[in-house]
Amino acid sequence: MNSWLEITQLQKKIDDFHLGPINLQIEPGTITALVGNNGSGKSTLLKLIMNLANPDMGNIKVFNKFVYGQDESWKDKIAYQAQTPIGYNPYTGNQLKSLIAPLYPNWDDTLFVDMVHSFDIPLHKRYGKLSQGVQQKLNLALTIARNTPLLLLDEPTSFMDIPSKKRLVDILVDWMDRGDHAIIFAGHQAEDIMKLADYLTVLRNGTMVGTFEKEELTATYMHYWLKEPLGKMSIPGEISREIKQLVSNQPAATEQFFHENNVAWTDRKALDLDEIITYLLQEGKDGYINDGNDVIGS
Amino acid sequence: MQDWKQAFRLAMFELKASKGSFLALFLFFLLMLFFFKTVLDYDLDKKTGIFDIFVFYIFSSFMMLVVKRKGFQIAKINEDVIASPSFVMLSQLAIKKDTIIKSRFIIHFVYSFPFQLVFLICLYPLTPGIQHALPVSSYIGLAVIWLSFSFYFGYGFPASEAGIKGTVKATILSYAMIMAGLLIIIFIPILSGYSIFYWTIILSRNWPLASSLVSIILAILGVIYWMHYARKSIEKFDYL
Question: For the ABC transporter domain, which residue ranges apply (chain A) (predicted)?
């Protein structure tokens, strides 16, 4: 299957921050969460995809077109919601809609109206006069309603109240079901990631840790409670240890070791996604090495 | 043609939201008309560089930047780049970069040309000093010289909306260049005996056709250059 987005060996240096190398492919029907600590390069990566910045190395293709090429037809097929939109302040929601809607042939006005009502967005007020939460809701309505195959969302729920977050997740799930779509979103909220994402692409201080299938990842990390302290023995898959507790990202190998060495454990529990992300973002704790070729949806 | 049509639609969108700025521009030009009439009637040929600064202020289109609403003025996008927020907004939408540049040029045209043209049309009948110095045909030449200047110099402003360096070094350099420009304007009358404005009166009086033709060619080349400059700026800057 053809990738809608293909990132190859992408690198970007900004002052003393270095992003990449990033290798990523996005295929239809998938939702990918970009996960990383603050300043890990998630927003920069989305802006590079939108050709708002120039990479130092590597390539980005959207629908088989280089984003920095002369052919800009790829722009019709991608909708981007910036974390902090620039240039919206002087306009009302109505004005912004009248600017944006005609640019996208598949603009879904029913969805836009539905989101405006659901989120109670006043379209007659100037964007700059709205609260951050309402700005974010309006921005999302203006972005999702473009109904492009590929949707990029940068921290879409960071200023939202809990009911609105839940509503947004429903909208996005419904939107994914209505045709060939793919979403990439940058986010910190484990709940959103848990509900929405099929894949997690993890960035740690600009370095790509890897891309993981969510279900696989949640099944991989296991927390064990042991009968006796472990002593100094080295355990396969071990990524964290306390006196009588151990966390492993290779549970099969760990349990095999326990069995062979008569190590008794009283309980085990799969880690929550936010705990797994925490481990992935701690250098040296993940046990993963980026193989440099992450394909999503294949 | 389709590009220009879309650029026009985008420009209208911003212009409709900028109505207050046009009232400010109208009042500014009214004030300038009164000022020019008074000064030119008093002493046409011995103007100092200070008067030229006002001429440059109007025809460089600098004052259009000042009257723009805050949300439409160029602003710091990040540590390194100053650009137009509208430009950045449009860059994130399904619009060709060339179309965005054209829309910025159309907006600048609407902000500058009609006001400058009406200003020049009103100045002649209101100012006996100019009428004595130039017949109508030569005055048209003078008008062409300054309107053309507003193209080959003024369109640097919409071109810079795609991005200029916002570093401290670049800012200091910009201020230094502005200061150097002001000093040149002030010193030309001292060194040559006439102000720049009066030199253009001499040009239009003696060679109205030639000076007009050269000015129009410069205006066309200027706009082409600034469009190219804007395209290069987009490729150069990171809107992070």
Answer: 2-230
Query: Which residue range forms the structural domain that includes residue A254?
Result: 222-270
Q: Is B19 on the interface with A (CB under 8 A)?
A: no
- Collect all residues of chain B within an 8 Å Cβ-Cβ radius of residue A80: 92
Q: Which residues of B touch A90 (CB under 8 A)?
A: 17, 69, 71-72
Any A CB within 8 A of B180 CB: no
Considering the domain architecture, whether residues A20 and A81 belong to the same structural domain is answered as: yes
* DSSP string of B49-111, one letter each residue: HHHHHHHHHHHT-HHHHHHS-GGGS-EE-SSSEEE-HHHHHHHTSS--HHHHHHHHHHHHHHH
Nearest to A52 among B10, B72, B91 (CB): B91
Tell me what pLDDT residue A192 has: 77
Predicted confidence (pLDDT) per residue in A191-232, tens digit: 777 788 999 999 999 999 999 999 888 888 999 999 888 777
Contacts of residue B86 in chain A, CB cutoff 8 Å?
A: 87
Give the residue on B whose Cα is nearest the Cα of A75: B94
CB of B228 less than 8 A from some CB of A: no
User: pLDDT tens digits, residue range B120-140?
Assistant: 999 999 999 899 889 999 999
Do A72 and A143 belong together in one domain? yes
What domain count does chain A have?
2
What is residue A24's three-state secondary structure? strand
Mean pLDDT of B143-155: 96
In terms of Cβ atoms closer than 10 Å to its own Cβ (0-12, 13-18, 19+), residue B178 is exposed
Query: A185 pLDDT exceeds 90?
Result: yes
With cut-offs at 50, 70 and 90, classify the pLDDT of residue B203. very high
- The verdict on residue A280 lying in a domain is no
Query: What's residue A289's pLDDT?
Result: 40
Letter string b/e over residues B217-232, b meaning 16 or more CB atoms within 10 A of that residue's CB: ebbeebbeebbeebee
Assess whether A141 and A178 both reside in one domain.
Answer: yes
Residues A177 and A261 in one domain: no
Residues A159 and A27 in one domain: yes
Query: Which residue of B lies nearest to A74 if distances are taken between CA atoms?
Result: B94
**Can you give the CATH number for the domain in which A127 is found?**
3.40.50.300
Assess whether A90 and A237 both reside in one domain: no
Say how far residue A99 (Cα) sits from the centre of its chain: 28
**Cα–Cα distance between A70 and B97 in angstroms, integer?**
10
Chain A, residues 92-151, CB within 8 A of chain B, namely 95, 98-100, 102-104, 128, 146
Determine the pLDDT at residue B47. 64
